[in-house]
Predict the 3D structure of the following.
Amino acid sequence: MALVKFKIDGEELEAEEGKTILQAAHENGIDIPTLCDHAALLPFGGCRMCVVQAGPGALKPACATPIAPNMNVITDSSEIREARMMVLQLLFGERNHYCMYCESTGQCELQDLGYKLGLDHFEFFPYEKRFPEDVTHPYILVDQNRCILCRRCVRACADLGGHWVLGVKNRGYQSLIDIDMDAPFNNSSCTSCGLCVQVCPTGTLVDKRASYLGRKDQAEMILSRCDRCPVGCGLEVYRRSNYILKIYGDWNCPTNGGVTCRLGRYAPLYDERPRLTTPKLKESGVWTPTSAEKAAQWMAGKLDAEHPAGGCLAVVEGSLSNEDLAALKRLFGERVFSLQDVIPPLPATAKLQDLADADTYLVVGVDLNREYGTVGSLIKRRTIPGAAKLVLVDDGFNSLAATTDFVFTMKDLDGALVEARKGRKTVLIYSRLPETVAEPLRSESQFTPTNRKYGDSPGAPQFLTLFLPYESNTLGLAQAGIGPGVWPSKSALERLPSSEAGSEGTVFFVGENLRDLKSRVRGATLVALTPFETDEVKAADLIVPIPAVFESEGSFVSMNGELLRKERILEPGEGVRSVSAWVALIEAQRLQSVVAKGK
Amino acid sequence: MNKVTLASDWLEGCAGCHMSLLDMDERIIELVQMGLVLTATPITDLKIPAFDTDLGVIEGAVATDHQLEVAKLYRERCKVLVALGDCAVFGGINTMRNWIPIEELLRRGYVTTETTVDGKIPKGPGIGTHLPRCMALNEVVKVDFFIPGCPPSADAIYQVLKDVLEGKTPKLEGKLLSYE
């Protein structure tokens, strides 16, 4: 790009053509106050805080004025200061911006500007009119009295999130942030991605859970990766004394660029499953808390019955880190199975980055607003404005159906393929597929001379496949060679050499969401290593606490095949050990018993 | 040495700003030695400011007709009027009542409170009548200087008084201005 020469406050500078004055100033470390501007959003020019003198005529908003050759920009003069102060006075005078009873005091961009520009009183008297609040949303609180109408939330909801839930109604000072044309927030099409809260400069949109518990600068920010689904969004986690205040998407993360979804931002914070904090052994039908050593001894005893793993096998869930999986493999050898399938119904050829320039998305059997929300955002922000086409194939309710005209049932897959073939670059997005659908899609994705639609030659239409793995570390499981194998067909249990070994077979379930244990166990002894004491694990004979979501650390393989690292945010309680630590403890116990036998 | 006379009063406020004034501790003596004369203040327990008082300092918002009269009296008799603290400067926490009808507000305060038995709303010539809105001081009279904060720090008050005694125009910036 061509470079343009210009001046800011007398300083000769250069910037790429097409950049705004504000961007050029920020690149050169020159500060211009802003409110409605946000680095991740398009310029808006709404608040007029950033006015500068650029050429003759009225003051211009730096955020929305492109630099021109030889432009002479002045960022500070008495006229400019006066104009900014007037804007600030009008903003403070319009609604209730009394900092004292606001959640955002100390982390509010409006307040910061007031201090910076030396606002010590109001010229215009507020508190004339009361604006509505909406507290119906489970996670987000909306107080329009704090709103400065910068429309960051509206723009983020549409341009980044792709949800188009928020808008603005009415005119002038009576303008209000509008949710789905006057719907209560909890009854709207909101997917609870929380972007609006993340970009709000004042206390209008607030995380309910974080309210009045501390400010950003009192918290420690930890960059981590979300392991709630295989997308692996970058997260900014704010921790204050072993408590998570809030979770924001990491603006600088190439995977999600600040966007994240309910599953990553809110769901884990609202998890109310009772925590398991101490190992519990079932003794004649009654749970008895036991020490870690005793629990490890008990488990080692089961493992000792045969060599290497005796009549035991481990069944793992896809939330475990690679390190935990490696430890379990050390203990159980080949007898580690996955609860869920790990093989995609058809091989994946696309990565998340391919979504950015595709013109057709063929989504089959998955509601992206509910699962894999970031993927949903990535495609919805292109399909809803018409930059790309969404072809949806699903039976039953799918909230994506409201956003597209091309909705087909699984039976009518051919119709969907006709639409999909019109694209130059089509990305098939899928997770689980029934075989009736998987087969035609498989042949569609493979280029053959008879398949006249797609090809490898340059310019030919592309048909790529983006597989959404079933669990966060499904690809890690696959790489470690752990699959469902004969599990969960129950024949795995039948193979347990319980009778010959003289000991009963034992199944170790490891993970967070252990389901249907009872129906799968059939008489074998059952050990559950799990963070939560849910009804499901009560079928077990021994339950052993492992760290919950934010207490564990480790690596996992994202859907893009990248090895991502998740940080430990919270300190687990005493008695809670990681899977690797439990394995080490069991190994130590086994070693001890070997030594004892030797004597 | 120029003497500077100071009168102060509180209106719809909690006296916190005057506590902050006292919180200057031994620096009050320093200011007095520099020429500050405390005349009518809640601290000296004199009620009415003298004519031509140099500095009138008012804490608290204007919420009743009595307070409105005090505000006007101060404006009349003081050369420079200073609004001290968030209530005087912005209206403060008292403005929360602006959205509630006064009748309902008084009933809640004096009658329907859970712990009240046989309550009644106090009335009488000695008790002010509520204005429709609780207002900042500069909404009713001209104010020359503002010291925001809830309460303003003793440092901010000290800085302002010291600047005045030294014949400078005070200016609050940075930490002295911020509420936090």
